[in-house]
Design goal:
Distance between the termini of chain B: 63 Å
Strand content of chain B: 25-35%
Structural class of chain A: mainly alpha
Shape of chain B: elongated
Helix content of chain A: over 70%
Number of helices of chain B: 11
Oligomer: heterodimer
Order of helices and strands of chain B: EHEHEHEHEHHEHHEEHEEHEHEE
Radius of gyration of chain B: 26 Å
Order of helices and strands of chain A: HHHHH
Distance between the termini of chain A: 22 Å
């Protein structure tokens, strides 16, 4: 199963030029775990807005790298957050698993 | 990609690091200078402290979101001129509509397409450059408030009635002066003189709308109404006289001829509006009050006084301004004599 749409990824790589792609990947790998942690604590504290905003950020970044599956999961959680619905079942754990796979793929794609 | 004609200074506000550095990279590749901030409060601080041509603004931000930043900018006369492009995800298009309504110039969806980015950034910078030029041009002839009103509301067609104070001023015996001096010297004198007069007039909320030879016409109380326009006109006149005296003293010390001026002010109903074409227009006033102000100014030579005003102008002055009652004067073209006063001191 492919976690990264290589067409999107290669366009990004070409557009940003040189080895800038490494900087982008590193920024994502550095920030995304915090976003996921924020979503967990938002669930615990019932902070709908914090939950929605972090889901939004993951979705936005996943789209940049062509991580479509991760983006779709994040988008779904963002929509629930917007509705004020924090009954997300195990969706956050599923997102986390996808993220781990995406992170591994991105590490491989560093140049 | 080729570098733009003139690089712009852009501020990028986005709380998400990946978005921020990617956008920064793309804008730098277009040849522009960038600064980045990661929340709305920092964005406002940066805009207030720096000389930016354009801001790329994210909607979703902590501390202060994109809407709040946008609203603050639109309401702040010092920030209003900086165009803002919203950067947003594709599924936030509803929010974009709201932002455009609030005053954003344009929007870009993330991930940003480099071709669209270039087109929108360059279009915004070009618009900003044209507006800045227009503003500079307006400010040559109007107060900053009037210039802002013009830029905001445009030239409204059709005139209005306004109650305003109209001032005419000219240099005494300028014809004799110009016969005795070289063209270069005459133009230099006029430029120095007008620079001083503009300062005095705009400092008191007046708008210079006409310069002809050595004479000028200024309007107080329109197009932006000020309740004390009569006092403002007279205070401007007093300052003009002070400035001309200082200017003359300096000229005498350089063995040059001194300059003396006469100022006439009348207050009343005028027809005010923008006349001209779309390419060249000026704010002007016409009507009896304007004719009367011109006649009163001409009368300063007869009366041997520097500043003369009509009774309607006098009615709006505080008691602290010194006046001499010169009685009634029947001006050419008027059926009724007009009470005239000489302003002696502020």
């Amino acid at each position: 199963m492919s976690y990264i749409d290589m067409k999107v990824f290669n366009e990004l790589k070409e557009m940003s030029g040189g080895d800038f792609i490494n900087e982008l990947i590193d920024a994502f790998l550095e920030d995304a775990p915090t976003m996921i942690t924020n979503m967990h604590s938002a669930l615990q504290s019932g902070n709908v807005e914090l939950f929605r905003r972090n889901a939004h950020s993951i979705k936005s970044n996943a789209n940049i790298f062509g991580a479509q599956g991760l983006a779709a999961q994040a988008k779904e959680l963002e929509a629930l957050g917007r509705e004020g619905n924090l009954n997300v079942g195990n969706r956050l754990e599923e997102l986390e698993a996808t993220y781990t796979a995406v992170a591994g793929a991105l590490r491989e794609l560093r140049v | 990609m080729t570098a733009p004609k003139e690089p712009g200074r852009l501020l990028i506000a986005d709380d998400n690091k990946v978005n921020r550095i990617l956008l920064a990279r793309a804008v730098e590749q277009l040849g522009h200078q960038i600064s980045t901030v990661d929340n709305g409060l920092q964005a406002l601080d940066a805009l207030r402290g720096g000389n930016f041509d354009l801001m790329l603004l994210d909607i979703e931000m902590p501390e202060m979101d994109g809407y709040q930043v946008l609203e603050t900018c639109v309401q702040d006369p010092n920030l209003r001129n900086i165009p803002i492009i919203m950067t947003t995800s594709l599924d936030e298009l509803d929010s974009v509509v709201k932002c455009i309504e609030l005053g954003a110039e344009d929007y870009l969806t993330k991930p940003v397409n480099p071709v669209l980015l270039r087109a929108r950034v360059n279009a915004c910078l070009e618009k900003k450059r044209l507006r800045d030029e227009q503003r500079k041009l307006f400010r040559t002839f109007a107060t900053p408030q009037v210039a802002e009103q013009l830029l905001r509301d445009g030239f409204s067609l059709g005139g209005n009635y306004a109650i305003a104070s109209i001032m005419f001023a000219d240099i005494r015996s300028f014809t004799t002066f110009s016969e005795k001096h070289e063209p270069g010297e005459i133009i230099e004198l006029l430029n120095e003189y007008f620079a001083l007069m503009f300062d005095a007039i705009t400092a008191h909320n007046g708008t210079v709308n006409l310069i002809q030879g050595d004479g000028l016409m200024a309007i107080f109380g329109a197009p932006v109404y000020h309740e004390n326009h009569r006092e403002q006109a007279v205070r401007a006149a007093l300052e003009m006289i002070d400035l001309v005296e200082a200017f003359s003293a300096q000229r005498i010390s350089e063995q040059k001829d001194p300059v003396r001026i006469g100022i006439g002010i009348a207050t009343g109903k005028v027809v005010a509006g923008y006349t001209g074409t779309r390419h060249r227009a000026s704010y002007t006033c016409v009507g009896d009050t304007v004719n009367l102000a011109a006649r009163i100014e001409a009368h300063t030579k007869v009366a041997g006084c520097s500043i003369l005003i009509d009774n309607y102008t006098r009615d709006g002055l505080p008691g602290t301004i010194g006046l001499d009652d010169l009685g009634e004067v029947l001006f050419k073209g008027k059926e009724q004599p007009i009470p005239i006063y000489s302003v002696t001191a502020g």
